[in-house]
């Protein structure tokens, strides 16, 4: 896969997606919004990877939305009939939201490795990932508030499910920066590393541990955790029972038992690729 704003590689069942515009602080330009959902969906569709790591190049993870998105020839029109303009804007926001929704919708876990600034739209993106890790110099900010608008791509919907409500509201209402240690204390990030190199090494080790497990078991975990987040315990338990009755098969479990007896890592079959019907 070849992209203008991203660098994508797959090795040992781990897909590594790098934001690759360091001179522009990895701001989210038009190319980014087109390419990120394509890259993530392609990785899931091909089923070669069992986990995705998202990192970036340069001093900062991402400065968020690039202003070029609003000034490009195909940008959202800001004049004309108010009703039609509003309807079009709503659809544009839904399209931008979908670029991050795919991080939740794919079958495999997505880990974010963050350094430097994680600003505005970048907070929206990492909020949609399964787990987050950062360096000691990382800072986060829901910058949209200080720009006179309301964050609209997932931060206000996902962060309240990741961190305490009172803190979430303070961060959203003020738009203030919060540093790596506070992010760790409130539960936004799993671990803080001294350098980007140490972080990538640590995150890749987590990714390797995930990649060793049964892809079916991990996909089931992600499906159930996401469902449980949005539903009651009773509904989630019923869905779990239905999932298990349809998806559980003993092959992977037998491989685990056999590998343990032989003191080796089990060798699991990949998930099936997702192909368009009737193509």
Shape: globular
CATH superfamily descriptor of the largest domain:
2-enoyl-CoA Hydratase, Chain A, domain 1
The count of helical stretches stands at 11
Order of helices and strands: EEHEHHEEHEEHHEHEHHHH
Characterize the main sheet.
Answer: 6 strands, mixed
The rounded Rg comes to: 20 Å
Supply the number of structural domains.
2
The CATH topology name of the largest domain reads 2-enoyl-CoA Hydratase, Chain A, domain 1
Q: Which runs of at least 5 residues are low in confidence (pLDDT < 50)?
A: none
| Strand segment tally | 9
Beta fraction of the residues? Answer: 5-15%
Helix percentage: 40-55%
Helix/strand-derived class? alpha/beta
User: What's the pLDDT, averaged over the residues?
Assistant: 94
**What is the CATH-assigned architecture of the largest domain?**
Alpha-Beta Complex
| CATH class (first level) name of the largest domain | Alpha Beta
Distance between the termini: 20 Å
The order of strands across the largest sheet is 1-2-3-4-6-9
């Amino acid at each position: 896969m070849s992209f203008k704003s991203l660098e994508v590689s797959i090795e040992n069942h781990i897909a590594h997606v790098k934001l690759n515009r360091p001179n522009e602080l990895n701001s989210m330009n038009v190319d980014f919004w087109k390419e990120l959902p394509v890259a993530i969906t392609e990785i899931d569709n091909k089923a070669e990877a069992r986990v995705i790591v998202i990192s970036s190049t340069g001093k900062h993870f991402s400065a968020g939305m690039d202003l070029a998105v609003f000034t490009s020839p195909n940008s959202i029109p800001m004049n004309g009939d108010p009703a039609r303009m509003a309807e079009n804007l709503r659809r544009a926001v839904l399209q931008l939201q979908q670029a991050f929704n795919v991080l939740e919708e794919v079958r495999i876990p997505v880990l974010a490795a963050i350094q430097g600034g994680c600003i505005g739209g970048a907070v929206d993106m990492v909020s949609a990932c399964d787990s987050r890790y950062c360096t000691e110099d990382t800072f986060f900010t829901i910058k949209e508030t200080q720009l006179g608008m309301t964050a609209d791509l997932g931060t206000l919907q996902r962060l309240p499910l990741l961190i305490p409500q009172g803190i979430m509201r303070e961060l959203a209402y003020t738009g203030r920066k919060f540093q790596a240690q506070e992010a760790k204390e409130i539960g936004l990030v799993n671990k803080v590393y001294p350098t980007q190199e140490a972080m990538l090494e640590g995150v890749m080790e987590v990714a390797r541990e995930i990649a060793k497990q049964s892809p079916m078991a991990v996909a089931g975990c992600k499906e159930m955790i996401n469902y449980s987040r949005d539903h009651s315990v009773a509904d989630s338990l019923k869905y779990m029972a239905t999932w298990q009755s349809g998806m559980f098969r003993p092959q992977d479990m037998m491989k685990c038992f056999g590998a343990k007896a032989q003191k080796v890592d089990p060798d699991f079959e990949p998930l099936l690729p997702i192909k368009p019907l009737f193509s």
